[in-house]
Structure formats: structure tokens, C-alpha cells
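ok so I'm stuck.
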Amino acid sequence: MKNKPVLPEEAEAAGRGRLEGRFRHFAAIDWSGAAGERHRGIAVALLAQEDPAPALVRPGHRWSRSEVLDWLRSKLPADTLVGFDIGIGLAHADCGAFFPGWADSPADARSLWALVDRLCADDPHLSVSSFVDHLEAARHFRRHGGREGDLFGGGRGRFRVTERAQEAMGCKPYSNFNLVGAAQVGKSSLTGMRLLHRLSGHLPVWPVDPLPPSGSVVVEIYTTIAAMAAGRSAAKSKIRDYEGLNQALMELGCSPVPGAGPIADHASDALITAAWLRNAAEDSALWHPAGLTDEIARTEGWTFGAR
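replied:
not stuck anymore, here's the structure
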């Protein structure tokens, strides 16, 4: 007797079943690539499956990047879905390489992370000055002081496939090769790659690594996607007061958090995204977006929530 074909809706239901209860905790890390050791721009929020609302980890503390690495390696609760607000890769699909014309251009995302960390071995605080100033690498970046590499590509720069998917959702992503401007994410992503390299053997990073059946996992997040799920527009995704924060949290099924008046948008981004991750984690479609191929997973990675 022939096997009965599996209908798409049945496959989706099976996916939901495998994901139900898969994670017990949800963490969101708003990151910073700024110079120096400690950063107001880093915030870590955590939410357990049974918690009424997310909370900041070490509220008021000015995190260093190394402290976040230590927290992930030694203090992360079991079975945590960790959303990390960086780009885990660079554009590759458009040119068939991260750095076309450079003989040492890495073959995949993990090799890219290793290269950035190796070239920046003497840079303190997981910074990346040595990488962006490297004679070959610098040709591909737009840097401060009007310095644009001859292989930057012009315009807004090169984009990953997942960033094009973000655009289709109404977001306005920035190229990770752009290191200029308040909204740039290039240095944040590169410093984050140093951290990801040092997490090797401790935490898998989806989709560079396949989603394992149990344990904690790191995914790339874009906090605007979480804010949109909470009823905000992409243009007004930043929340800087407790009233707006609690409205967003209630949209995501959470209780209000205590507080009144202004709040740093880094903190609100982390809190809202942790709440969104709890809702999104069991959506099998988000783990199987249409544009995510094996090659894209291996090289560019993907933003969790980009469809």
C-alpha cells in the first residue's frame, strides 16, 4: 500500500506539535557595536514560559560585551530561545562571496566569524577596529570620514536575502557593510560575530546550525518585527515611555511592567522582543521561511520572524 501524501496543512500541524513546549525561557539581547568597554545600548530581557511579563536582567547595569558572553555561556537558563539583535552574516548570495576579489574570503558564516575574531585578537572588548581597517576588508565597507571602499557597491550597500524579506514586510533594514550613521548595524553585527565565534561548542546558532530537538538556541532578531507584532508601525517601532511599552506588552499577551515616564528604547526593545519570542517560537512557518535555502543558512543566515 502506498504511503498517503502529507498535505501542507498536515505538515504545518506536525511542525507546531514538535515546537509546542520546545522552549521554556525566552531572552532578547539588544546589542551595541560602539567603542569602549561598557554600553548603555546593551539590554538583556528574560521571560519564562509561565511568567506574566518579561523583566530586564541586571536592570540599570551597563553591560560589557564580554559580560553578555559570560552570561550566555554560564548563566543562561535551560531551554532558552535567545534572540540576538545583530546580523549573523554578511551578503553572500548576490556575489557568491562575502568579499569578492579577496582570496581569503571565508566560505561560510562560521568561517567569517572566525576570521573577524582572529584579525581582531588584539582589539579589546570584542571590538572590531582591526577588521574594518584591514586593507582587503576595508574595500567592502562604508566607514566614517567619507571613506567608502571601492567594492562597497554604492547606494545603500549590499543586502542579504533575509534583509530583502524584511523589506517586503515593510521594514527598512541597513546593509551590514554600512558602518556610518546612528541606524547602522554593521559594527554591532561584526562585534556580535566575535561573540558567536566564542560561543562555538556552547550554543547552536540557527539556521547556521539546524534547530536541535532540545536545549537552548540563538537566533538573529530584528526588534522592529517584534514591535510590528505588538501593533506598532515600522516607522514608529521605537518606544521610549512605559505607557507605550505596556500597551505593546499587552498586545503580546503580557501583563504591564512596573514603571512610569521615560524608558530607554534599548530596554523596551529587549522587553518587547522577549515577549514576542514566546509567541513566535511555536510558529513552524517562522522556522521554515520560503527564502531560506541550505546555502543561505550556511552563509548568510536568517532573521527569525522574516517571512
